[in-house]
Amino acid sequence: MxxxxxxxxxxxxxxxxxxxxxxxxxxxxxxxxxxxxNHRHETIESDMKIEVYNHKTDEIMTLYLEEYVRNVVAAxxxxxxxxxxxxxxxxxxxxYAVWKINRFKDSVNPDHPGASLCTDHQHCQExxxxxxxxxxxxxxxxxxxxxxxxEAVAATAGxxxxxxxxxxxxxxxxxxxxxxxxxxxxxVSALPxxxxxxxxxxxxSPVLVDTKTVSVSEFVNAIKGRYSDFSIKQNNIASEITIxxxxxxxxxxxxxxxxxxxxxxxxxxxxxxxxxxxTITVRGNSIEFTTRGYGHGVGMSQWGANGMAERxxxxxxxxKHYYQGIDLSKIKSYM
Length: 335
What we know:
single chain; alpha+beta; three-stranded mixed beta sheet; three-stranded antiparallel beta sheet; 9 helices; 35% helix; disordered N terminus
């Protein structure tokens, strides 16, 4: 009997405790929670603190996790969004913080030593202080919308997304243009939860379609600024531009322009386009770019999430649509 009992203990240790050790290496225990789509979570504040580098003031701030999440959500999505879409953003923002903390648990973040996160959206997530939010939107915005953001964050307190018992990298963007991207088509790694999915409810996005026009000379000089040996026949420039490859999500992977084959992301960067999902039309002495979507297109579309919420989707349903195969987990100190 003693041998059987010890065997049972060994089984429990290897199948239940060991996976938790993997995910709690940075002192955050994340057991699974109820996965029912209509589940609601008790509002619980935690004393968990994080270090955040403020790139505007050049200082490291010590913030409570939920305090940080509130100000990220307020900065990243329109407060007029549906509450379920704001909840989805809150979970994504919290997951990103946990993922980043885990990533640098055994090393120093070289971009901002002493802090796992920063306030710059080009590097981490955008974070605005309460005063910055008031300066940007006004006192009436604070009165009408701040309580809504607090409600959404509190309703999801401690909830993050996990895959194989680890916090995911929850990439998100403004508008996909109708279909999100596989991660490897935009970045290096093929992540199983960042798969291309449909995003059909983005019609209210103000950046769904955009056009930008440059002169032919501006077009040529801009590419020459990147590649000094660039050459193109300007008398029949339309025939010198060929889209060689598009991703499943619609973004341009490769485009041939003159004697150069460029990545779509390079062209987006050179001409400051809203996305890499674009067409090029030659109109006389002008080049017209027409883009669909705004951002890298990987992970959750914020406007798509709001469209789903308008049609009755819960934040759990939104997240499980845009992040394939994930589970919703809760940080142990919130339980």
